[in-house]
Design brief:
The complex is a heterotrimer of chains A (326), B (346) and C (359).
Chain A: H1 2-29, H2 43-52, H3 59-67, H4 104-139, H5 144-158, H6 161-175, H7 187-217, H8 220-228, H9 232-269, H10 275-285, H11 288-316, H12 322-325
Chain B: E1 4-15, E2 18-30, E3 35-39, H1 46-53, E4 62-71, E5 74-75, H2 81-87, E6 92-95, H3 99-102, H4 109-118, H5 125-138, H6 144-147, H7 157-169, E7 175-179, H8 187-204, E8 207-212, H9 215-221, E9 224-229, E10 232-238, H10 239-244, H11 249-257, H12 297-301, H13 312-317, E11 329-330, H14 335-345
Parallel strand pairs in B: 3-8, 3-9, 6-7, 7-8
Antiparallel strand pairs in B: 1-2, 1-4, 4-5, 9-10, 10-11
Chain C: H1 17-26, H2 32-41, H3 44-61, E1 91-92, H4 104-117, E2 121-122, H5 135-171, H6 173-188, H7 191-202, H8 214-225, H9 228-243, H10 245-252, H11 257-293, H12 305-315, H13 323-350
Helix pairs in contact in C: 2-13, 3-5, 3-13, 5-6, 5-8, 5-9, 5-11, 5-12, 5-13, 7-8, 9-11, 10-11, 11-12, 11-13, 12-13
The chains are: A mainly alpha (326), B alpha/beta (346), C mainly alpha (359).
Chain lengths: 326, 346, 359
């Protein structure tokens, strides 16, 4: 396990570096900059701003500056000029280039908990709904409920989440007003967005778990359990669920990434001040520091979640050996 | 009263290609402490038979058309699911075939044996663990206590098979349905397991339905033998007598192909010519007729009934020791010729 | 003591009789595709899906020929008409060709349409949007974008993904290692964020003498991210086949490498590729919708299903729900994706390809 985690840590460094590098160069290669916005700045003001953020430096120097807490200035690598920001190695993303009085760290500290709350709630709902539906549907395959679950799962997979969101709003905010349309703060605000975010993943989990349960139920060892005198519900919950859980757990990695992506849309529909809003805006506005900050944080979250999923996977299945897999 | 009395068991499978008669009027009895060996080619329906006794066949696909399974005064086929669960494992235990697939890969051996025990007895986890370890010792697993925490994939095929046997005998059942329990074992362990079963038959009066290919083991350990072909019993009787004077050509062929059981060292190993019939398309007459050297015209037209064989007296006159009172049954019109042939051979 | 001889073609396997039947069928490898077609034909859902998809492709390709109103024709007097049953007016005689810049083929089809139907157009059968544009016409024209995106992703998956995976699987060793590590890194990078970057960035207003139109960039980017899973799946299958008994047997019998490739590997990989393709297309179409919602998809006045649904979603309000503006493109999309995934599931079952979960 420790060797696996070590290798993972190494991969983590490589991947994060790749993300940073790609994001950095793609951003800089893009035409326009953070100060070429809608209102034209006076050339001297713009020059001053560019100097303040070291955008007048050569690209390699800007790159190093972004990467680490290197105290760079005009004279060389280790000058002592006052620094604008510490760099990614110091976990300091610097000030936003659009909203000059806000640091990227502060903006993320405010918005990220909201996104994480929404995302983890959505994942939880997806797991509970998906597994619950699959268990019931595998207990009575071919029943009316089973057919309903399969239909709902199919529908959840073929609709974009903003369409699901608008249908939910239509039904639960307009026709049967039990939830607010938008906003953030009270627990009731989280209901519709979390549900809208969760449903496509719940649908996939239900499909995956149902197929897994039915496959496991046809295995020889289920007959062994039955021959021992285990009850049908014990067989489903204890013997079959354990086997069907592994594909679901391995899907949680991609699902978490998907939830992050989906939150970009959901946060916009429900006017939730999460990190997703920063993401699109910063990319469009060439807010170099903010864009870098959000991208790195999202990449790290996806990576961390995938690693956690891999560890959980081995705990579930003793046959897997992470040392060898790594 | 017999321990278990199976009467006219008929099982049909509904497949995509049509109905498939898996068991055809299967009847047999097992007494307390007795071992009945069920032999036949793979696919002849031996395992289906064992599973049908405990209603373990896949629901919806397998239909028990007729039959009664009398055990401890009740017909198992009419019991409710709840009543059946109290019988399964506790009174009648199954040792499934294929130990690689029959153990749950995600639970330790100990967890699986403990579950079998605690389903039927009020036991603490620790007590159940003790009993599980004792059961593993009984089936000859070395370092039993450590094996409790092993996962199936960490054990060899032989150990897995013994774990399955331990799991079956741990709750002290009265009848054991052992589906090829020794195929994955080497000869010494095989003998060990067979001796263990013999011991349990003596001490606990355990009845055993022993499903196997190994006619050598049958000859040495089984009290009686039943031969199955294409879903139907073709011959049954005391092992010694059936092996001495088989009355069905299929039994004769089986025995001939099994290296003649040490009779003549130079005897040629024979195999039965031809293929078993298509299960979805059984012939109207005797299912074995197409491969049978004794077959007459009548054999292809009507199915022979399962009756005491003819010609045993003549065989007796030729000096073959036979107990006429014992239950011998055979499903063959030409059993007389078969018996005389067998008598002539020996 | 020897055991009773085991019969290879058993009467039926005790463990699972159906498995035995299937295995009997599998013993004739050349009939894989024929058997698959047989099994597909027996499933009504697959037949209907296939018919639906073919119909949709025709409809979408022939959209300029149909007597629909112009998808971009604004008429504020007719804004937000709901769909009605029965149609109050089957059509009207006020067609004015108003399109965005059309390609030469489409332009010819439009002129053919005017000479065929003149000024006649269908009524607003599915209602109109906030600017009085016909929803049906927009949905039909919008299908072109969605299908084109799907086609584009399919092509890159096939051309880049499949050959990348096959190259890795066949060459093995260091080449395999390097190629798959690249895929691993690209997988770990949250591609969606790079897509958003690429789109917003390559399409900046100051992009100078734009070499590529926004549509072209869009298709390129979506294609560029959709080949990764195909590469993995194909590599896995090729490796498995390389190690399989029948390839070994062929090699032992002295078969040449090209022979093994064309006779043994290609036919077996093909099934997997087809299945993977039908199962990734829905996600690509959803991807288009997602990007359109964020304003990164095709540009108005052009239309796509994603754009229409996004417009509909934003038009929702508690007073007048205008539900048809979401439902029309939503249903079109749902039906298409459902047909695609039904077809994919059917193909997977028919070719008995196991679903491998891609991460």
């Amino acid at each position: 396990m420790s060797r696996f985690l070590l290798r993972r840590a190494l991969w983590f460094v490589v991947t994060t570096w790749a993300v940073i590098t790609i994001a950095f160069f793609v951003l800089r290669a893009a035409p326009g900059g953070p100060f070429s916005g809608e209102r034209k700045l006076h050339p001297s003001v713009e020059a001053a701003l560019r100097a303040q953020y070291h955008l007048d430096w050569p690209l390699w120097k800007q790159y190093l500056h972004t990467l680490g807490p290197l105290n760079l200035d005009e004279r060389g690598l280790f000058g002592d000029a006052s620094d604008v920001f510490g760099g990614l190695l110091a976990l300091d993303f610097g000030p936003s280039m659009q909203h000059r009085d806000v640091s990227v760290n502060d903006a993320l500290a405010q918005s990220l908990p909201i996104s994480i709350t929404l995302g983890s709630l959505a994942l939880g709902i997806a797991l509970v709904l998906g597994l619950g539906a699959a268990l019931l549907s595998a207990q009575f395959p071919g029943s009316r409920f089973d057919r309903l679950v399969r239909l709902a799962a199919a529908a959840g997979l073929v609709l974009p989440n903003f369409v699901i969101a608008s249908l939910l709003v239509l039904v639960f905010a307009f026709w049967i007003p039990i939830a607010p349309v938008a906003g953030w703060g009270a627990p009731r605000h989280v209901l519709l967005p979390a549900l809208a975010l969760a449903l496509p993943f719940a649908a996939y989990i239900a499909r995956l778990a149902r197929a897994g349960l039915l496959e496991t139920l046809s295995k020889d060892y289920i007959r062994t359990a039955r021959a021992k005198g285990a009850s049908e519900s014990a067989i489903l919950w204890r013997h079959a669920l354990r086997g069907a859980l592994t594909p679901v757990v391995s899907y949680l990695g991609p699902a978490a990434a998907g939830v992050l992506t989906g939150s970009l849309v959901i946060e916009r529909i429900f006017a939730i001040p999460g990190a997703g809003t920063h993401f699109v805006a910063s990319a469009l506005n060439r807010d170099y520091t903010m864009a870098m900050g959000v991208t790195v944080v999202y990449a790290v979250m996806v990576f961390g979640f995938n690693t956690a999923v891999d560890v959980a996977y081995t705990l579930l299945d003793p046959r897997l050996d992470l040392e060898r897999e790594a | 009263m017999s321990l278990i009395d199976v009467r006219h068991l008929r099982v049909r499978f509904d497949t995509e290609r049509g109905p498939l008669q898996a068991l055809e009027h299967v009847s047999f009895r097992i007494e307390r402490g007795e071992m009945l060996a069920l032999v036949g080619e793979s696919g002849s329906g031996k395992s289906v038979c064992a599973q049908a006794l405990l209603s373990l066949l896949p629901r919806g696909r397998a239909v028990v058309e007729t039959g009664e399974v009398w055990f401890e005064g009740r017909n198992l086929l009419t019991l409710s699911e709840r009543e059946l669960r109290a019988v399964r494992g506790a009174r009648i235990a199954l040792v499934p075939q294929d130990p690689g697939a029959a153990l749950h890969p995600l639970f330790t051996i100990g967890e699986q044996i403990v579950e079998a025990l605690r389903l039927h007895q009020e036991l603490s986890r620790e007590e159940a663990r003790e009993l599980a370890a004792a059961a593993l010792v009984e089936v000859g697993v070395p370092a039993a206590r450590e094996r409790l925490d092993a996962y199936p994939h960490e054990l060899s095929g032989g150990l897995r098979q013994r774990a399955l046997i331990a799991m079956a005998i741990a709750p002290r059942p009265q009848l054991l349905l052992a589906d090829e329990p020794t195929t994955a074992l080497d000869v010494t362990v095989q003998a060990q397991i067979m001796e263990l079963l013999a011991e349990l038959r003596r001490t606990r009066e355990l009845g055993v339905l022993f499903i196997t290919h190994d006619l050598g083991l049958v000859a040495n350990y089984a009290d009686r033998v039943a031969v199955m072909y294409a879903g139907a019993l073709v011959e049954s009787g005391p092992t010694r007598e059936v092996f001495r004077a088989p009355a069905h050509p299929y039994t004769l062929g089986l025995l001939a192909s099994a290296a003649s059981l040490g009779q003549r060292a130079d005897a040629r190993l024979e195999s039965i010519a031809g293929m078993p019939p298509d299960p979805l398309n059984l012939p109207p007459g005797c299912a074995f007729a197409a491969r049978c050297a004794f077959a007459q015209e009548a054999c292809a037209r009507a199915r022979p009934p399962f009756l005491p064989p003819m010609g045993l007296r003549q065989a007796l006159e030729r000096g073959v020791e036979l107990n006429l009172a014992a239950e011998r049954r055979v499903a063959c019109f030409e059993s007389e010729r078969v018996v005389s042939r067998a008598g002539a051979d020996s | 003591m020897s055991a009773v001889p085991e019969q290879r073609r058993s009467w039926f396997a005790d463990a699972d009789f159906e498995l035995a039947l299937v295995q009997l069928e599998r013993e004739r490898p050349q009939s894989l595709w024929r058997a698959a077609r047989e099994r597909l034909r027996r499933r009504a859902s697959v037949r209907w899906s296939l018919r639906f998809l073919i119909g949709l492709c025709l409809l979408s390709f022939l959209a300029p020929l149909l007597p629909l109103p112009s998808p971009a024709a604004i008429n504020l007097a007719n804004a937000t008409l709901p769909p009605q049953l029965p149609w109050p007016a089957p059509g009207a005689l006020d067609f004015e060709p108003q399109y965005w810049e059309l390609g030469p083929l489409d332009a010819q089809m439009v002129s053919l349409r005017t000479s065929l139907f003149g000024k006649w157009r269908t009524g607003h059968w599915l209602g109109t949007d906030a600017l009085g544009r016909d929803v049906l016409a927009r949905v039909v024209w919008g299908s072109r974008t969605s299908l084109l995106v799907a086609l584009c992703a399919a092509l890159t998956s096939l051309v880049i993904g499949a050959s990348w995976g096959a190259l890795a699987g066949l060459s093995g060793g260091r080449v395999d290692n390097v190629l798959m590590r690249i895929v691993d890194v690209l997988f770990a990078v949250p591609t969606i964020f790079l897509v958003i970057f690429l789109l917003s960035v390559l399409d900046a207003p100051g992009a100078g003498e734009a070499r590529l139109s926004r549509e072209q960039i869009f298709f390129l980017v979506v294609g560029a991210v959709s080949w990764l899973s195909m590469a993995r799946v194909v590599r896995g299958q090729v490796l498995e086949l390389e190690r399989s008994a029948f390839v070994e047997a062929a090699r032992a019998a002295g078969a040449s490498t090209p022979w093994i490739l064309t006779r043994h590997i290609l036919p077996n990989v093909l099934g997997l590729v087809v299945v993977n393709l039908t199962l990734t297309l829905p996600s690509v179409i959803l991807y288009e919708a997602f990007l359109s919602f964020l304003g990164l998809g095709v540009e108005p006045p052009r239309v796509s299903w994603g754009l229409l649904a996004a417009e509909g979603a934003e038009a929702l309000n508690p007073l007048e729900s205008y539900a048809w503006l979401v439902l029309a493109p939503g249903c079109a999309m749902a039906a298409t994706l459902l047909a695609l995934s039904t077809l994919g599931d059917g193909l997977r079952d028919a070719l008995s390809v196991t679903e491998r979960h891609e991460r």
